[in-house]
Specification:
heterodimer, A: alpha/beta, Aconitase, domain 4, four-stranded antiparallel β-sheet, 8 helices, globular, B: about 475 residues, alpha/beta, Aconitase, domain 3, Aconitase, Domain 2, 3 domains, five-stranded parallel β-sheet, 15 helices, binds iron/sulfur cluster
């Protein structure tokens, strides 16, 4: 997984609320049993003029300069709600998004971000709106700076906001860790748990039946 | 110390505290389907990792398979066959339990998990699918995950999870006749918004919840994700135990008494503290129907399409404006009477035998209105067989419904079959998002009985006004 330490980048504000994973990647764009090749389908219903088509809709923000270079997304409340499809995150990551800032995330989407090197940042609505307003004044010049080491977002005008992230998630992103390998370091604990649990709840262990 | 049922189940599964509220949690059951599970199995394979305890992992084919009678591995979805065959091969190689096409036990993952006794009270169950919370209806702690997390759960039997806040939602009073669990959950989301549950695990409680049969409890918990919650559950009771007993993967006779004794402890202590409590007065619930493109865009069937001009919050106002444009509805229009092009009865929300029976009771002796395309998709092969044994398939086909093989079908548009551009569908499913059921398809979520009654009338209808058969 790609590490995330800090980033200074163009941000694209898509300030709608409840942007669901069906919007981020429509189901019909999940064409192969693979994590790759999905960025073309990202926001397909908004990005292209026709369902299933590939003619760009010039009104959609990520089709415009300089937002094509955006590495940060700003969005309204409840971003990534809906379906668990990790394809939404794989598509965003492949397209180049490294950080998403919103007042609230869909729960599964948040976890998927962390596992794929995208930093999910939760900030109050008023802050996100202020960041969006500053960016819109000069999208190419008003960059946002994000630093995961001290959990801060610095607005173009220099205002610094701190955000919270679970230490385990922070470490995973900073180090670009493989989560399975990290957990397997505790394999003795897991096996010991199973030994005790098998006595307490034998019906859970289907090899007993 | 007094604990909530959620904390009790959590504590039983906690292997290690990783600090700051994040824990390593033991996972009892992993369920996969061919849409997202295939990637997880392939990912494991590629990394050279094995499934730990494959006997406790399961896989079904539900999302991409066609639901036409006489189906095969071929799909109307381009490339769908590859998903099916890749999943089959990977599941067999991993040695996990597979409910394949042609097996009567095949069906929608969240329908067959309770049906087979795979989801159990007090068990942790995960699936790379957002509606896994459905299984909370049995008192399981079950939640949706991503494919990468599914790899983690398969390889290690654990997940790293941040401890959720707890919320109790009390459905007070008695549910009026003709009002269903679907109406209850839509009402909750309508009142408290689609993000009202973000960060929480929810216990549904109250007299009206206790009175719900198990299948209705599954419906109620199914849409906790539409409320934004991490998951939701209902503490198990005697009804739950009766439902579970004798199912194929349920505790066997020798383990049964020990299991039930354990499950009886899974109640919130009388003075347990929740981070948040809310109440809904059931007497006020009428048949609910959505008018927009979020499950929170809903009202009673006797309500009106809202006027965005009356909404103060600008973000909410613009989302409502956009929704009305997409749905092609004018502010102030009464919901009852909005003409429909199609009716869909199915999905993990409402495709169980009790849903089909309730809809059939309305359809018996009636016909679907001319020009309305109506489809019924049973949630599993076993539901289908049971319905056919009772003659319900005849009721549906006589009324003009198509009768399908089990699967997710047009609950979501995968690129194959859809209702079509700008078609208006009354649907027993759980998501009315833009393009969810097909490009520019317009979805109105409702209960199975509202779907059946509206199919008969040809417009969104107050099911309480449908009288005796033939009316
Ligand atoms: S029926 Fe619909 S909501 Fe349920 S699992 Fe299938 S696609 Fe998802």
């Amino acid at each position: 997984m790609e590490k995330f330490t800090q980033l200074t980048a163009i941000a694209a504000p898509i300030m709608r609320i409840n942007i669901d994973t069906d919007v981020i990647i429509p189901s019909r764009e999940m064409k192969r049993v693979s994590k790759e090749g999905l960025s073309e389908g990202m926001f397909a219903n908004w990005r292209y003029t026709e369902p299933g088509g590939r003619e760009e809709n010039p009104d959609f923000i990520l089709n415009q300069e300089p937002y094509r270079q955006a590495r940060i997304l700003l969005s309204g409340d409840n971003f990534g709600c809906g379906s668990s499809r990790e394809h939404a995150v794989w598509a965003l990551a492949e397209w180049g998004i490294r950080c998403i800032i919103t007042p609230k995330f869909g729960n599964i989407f948040y976890g998927n971000c962390v596992r794929n090197g995208i930093l999910p940042v939760v900030l109050p609505n008023a802050v996100v709106e202020d960041l969006a307003a500053q960016v819109e004044q000069d999208p190419a010049g008003n960059l946002i700076h994000v630093d995961l080491r001290n959990c801060s977002v610095t607005a173009p005008d220099g205002t610094k906001h701190t955000f919270e992230i679970a230490p385990a998630d922070q470490e995973m992103l900073l180090e670009g860790l493989d989560a399975i390998a990290v957990t397997m370091k505790r394999d003795d604990e897991i096996l010991a748990f199973q030994g005790r649990d098998r006595l307490a709840r034998p019906w859970i262990y289907l090899d007993n039946n | 110390m007094s604990l909530t049922v959620i904390e009790k189940i959590w504590n039983e599964h906690q292997i290690a505290d990783l600090g700051d509220g994040t824990c390593l949690i033991y996972i009892d059951r992993v369920f996969l389907h061919e849409r997202t599970g295939s990637v997880a199995l392939k990912g494991l394979e590629a990394a050279g990792r094995k499934v730990r305890n494959p006997e406790q992992a399961f896989c079904t084919m539900d999302h991409i398979v066609d639901t036409f009678p006489g189906r095969s591995d071929d799909t109307t979805l381009p490339g769908g066959t590859a998903f099916i065959q890749t999943t089959r091969a990977a599941a067999q190689a991993a040695g996990i339990n597979l409910f394949d096409l042609g097996d009567q036990r095949q069906g929608i993952v969240h329908v067959i998990s309770p049906e087979q006794g795979i989801a159990l009270p007090g068990a942790t169950v995960v699936c790379p699918d957002s509606h896994t919370g459905t299984l909370g209806g049995l008192g399981a702690l079950a939640w949706g995950i991503g494919s990468t997390e599914a790899e983690h759960a398969l390889a290690t039997k654990t997940l790293v999870v941040k401890k959720p806040k707890t919320m109790r939602v009390n459905f007070e009073g008695e549910l009026p006749t003709g009002i269903t669990a679907k109406d209850m959950i839509l009402k909750l989301i309508g009142e408290h918004t689609a993000s009202g549950g973000v960060g929480y695990a929810i216990e549904f409680a109250g007299a009206a919840v206790r009175a719900l049969p198990i299948e209705a409890r599954l419906t109620l918990c199914n849409m906790t994700v539409e409320f934004g919650a991490w998951t939701g559950l209902i503490a198990p009771d005697e009804q739950t135990f009766a439902y579970v007993q004798g199912r194929p993967y349920a505790p066997n006779a020798a383990q049964w008494d020990q299991a039930v004794a354990h499950w009886r402890t899974l109640q919130s202590d009388p003075d347990a503290r929740f981070d948040k409590e809310i109440s809904i007065d059931c007497a006020s619930i009428v048949p609910q129907v959505t008018w927009g493109t979020s499950p929170m865009h809903e009202t009673g069937i006797d309500g009106l399409v809202p006027d965005p001009a009356q909404i103060a919050d600008s973000a909410v106002r613009s989302s409502v404006e956009r929704a009305l444009e997409y749905m092609d509805l004018q502010p102030g229009t009464p919901l009852e009477g909005v003409p429909i092009d199609a009716a869909f009865l199915g999905s993990c929300t409402n495709s169980r035998i009790s849903d089909l029976r309730a809809a059939a009771d309305i359809l018996r002796g009636r016909k679907v209105a001319p020009g309305v395309k109506a489809i019924c998709v049973p949630g599993s092969g076993l539901v289908k067989a049971e319905a056919e044994a009772e003659g319900l398939d005849k009721v549906f086909t006589d009324a003009g419904f198509e009768w399908r093989e089990s699967g997710c079908s047009m609950c979501f548009f995968a690129g194959g079959e859809s209702f079509g551009l700008e078609e208006r569908v009354v649907s027993s499913t759980n998501r009315n998002f833009e393009n969810r059921q097909g490009p520019r398809t317009r979805t109105h979520l409702a209960s199975p009985t509202t779907v059946a009654a509206s199919a008969v009338k040809g417009y969104l209808t107050d099911v309480r006004r449908i009288g005796a058969a033939g009316d």
